[in-house]
Write a structure and sequence with these properties.
The complex is a heterodimer of chains A (116) and B (114). Chain A has 116 residues and is mainly β. Chain A has no helices and eleven strands. Chain A is 0% helix and 53% strand. The chains are: A mainly beta (116), B mainly beta (114). At the A-B interface, strand 4, strand 5, strand 9 and strand 10 of A face strand 4, strand 5 and strand 10 of B.
Chain lengths: 116, 114
């Protein structure tokens, strides 16, 4: 099946620094990628949708200047958490969809961000 | 407002029994519905997709039903095993295009006891 990787799998950073998370589709071209965050015992909360070569579409309440998304190619999307604060600590998960037909999302393994 | 509810936060059953998980939705007309499995600290893994014009889908020990009149999907795991213990998420999509976004329920954590 299709594989999506994320890097890093976990990161600890100081408050005020920026952190970049990479999401790659390894064996298919992802026309659309999604970024989610998930708090403990809660479901996935969609942050933004990104299509290759265009600006990301952010969900209501998600600050686009804080969570910078770049979908530079059909196999790579990055999420940069700028000026991170402890409240940004969460589990960030990306997913990718392939093609133009109805299908499932393939999720990455997630990145655990802890901001001290 | 649109709402997705999955039955009880936690479900405990004995090995060998059938686990039945429920996903109810309101104020929603999904084009299709999906079920995912998520293990702690991992991303969700796709299990089954069922379209609005389909009543039932099967895959090995898994079965999903979709009743658009009741606005409900049932997810069954037959002959359950301890390895089936995980959180199961339902997700609804309104669109048939590849840009469709899924809305996820909060999940049901299943524990299968040996």
């Amino acid at each position: 099946g299709a594989v999506v990787s994320q890097h890093p799998s976990w990161v600890i950073c100081k408050s005020g620094t920026s952190v970049k998370i990479e999401c790659r589709s390894l064996d298919f071209q992802a026309t659309t990628m999604f970024w989610y965050r998930q708090f403990p015992k809660q479901s996935l909360m969609l942050m933004a949708t990104s299509n290759e070569g265009s600006k990301a579409t952010y969900e209501q309440g998600v600050e686009k200047d804080k969570f910078l998304i770049n979908h530079a190619s059909l196999t790579l999307s990055t999420l940069t958490v700028t000026s991170a604060h402890p409240e940004d600590s969460s589990f960030y998960i990306c997913s990718a969809r392939e093609g133009d037909f109805v299908n499932e999302q393939f999720f990455g393994p997630g990145t655990r961000l802890t901001v001290l | 407002s649109q709402k997705i509810e999955q039955n009880s936060e936690a479900l405990n059953i004995q090995e060998g029994k059938t686990a039945t998980l429920t996903c109810n939705y309101t104020n929603y007309s999904p084009a299709y519905l999906q079920w995912y499995r998520q293990d702690p600290g991992r991303g969700p893994v796709f299990l089954l997709l069922i379209r609005e014009n389909e009543k039932e889908k099967r895959k090995e020990r898994l079965k999903v039903t979709f009743d658009t009149t009741l606005k409900q999907s049932l997810f069954h795991i037959t002959a359950s095993q301890p390895a089936d213990s995980a959180t199961y998420l339902c997700a609804l999509d309104r669109s048939n295009t590849n840009a469709g976004k899924s809305t996820f329920g909060d999940g049901t954590t299943l524990t299968v006891k040996p």
